[in-house]
Amino acid sequence: MSNDLSKLAARANDAETRTAAAADTARTDLERDVSSARASTEAQAERLRGTAAAREPKVAKWWTEVRRSWHEHVVQAHEDVDTRRAEHDVKKAKRRADHAEGYAAFAIDLAYSAVVEAEYATLDAVLARMDAEQAEQERRSKRLAGTPS
User: Fold this and answer.
1) Chain mean pLDDT for the chain
2) Which of 22, 43, 58, 59 registers the highest number of CB atoms within 10 A of its CB?
3) Cα dihedral sign for 85, 87, 92, 93?
């Protein structure tokens, strides 16, 4: 799990670097980067669905709802972005930029919350494993001492 958190931190750093450089990027290059990031988002969402499905017997029922809700949110957000991109009026373009910035801020907040939740879940998993190992050790000690478990 620690390795997964390290990968997450590295990916967040990459996102920060690419975002900071975006303002100085040529429009065609930025359009390509946006398209690539969107494809990456969709691929990651598909991987997440697969990972969650594989772990589903071990994961609480709420995860299925979170996954479904997130998928619906991403689909709707991408549809909204596509619709707004088709608008060329200056006012509409400014509103689209405001909307895109708001969505980006929300996505960052959501990702931050996910990192905090991942930290909690990882630490809780380590603690649960320690508890299980301690319980197993106590059971063995009782068995060796001749005490029924």
Assistant:
1) 81
2) 59
3) positive
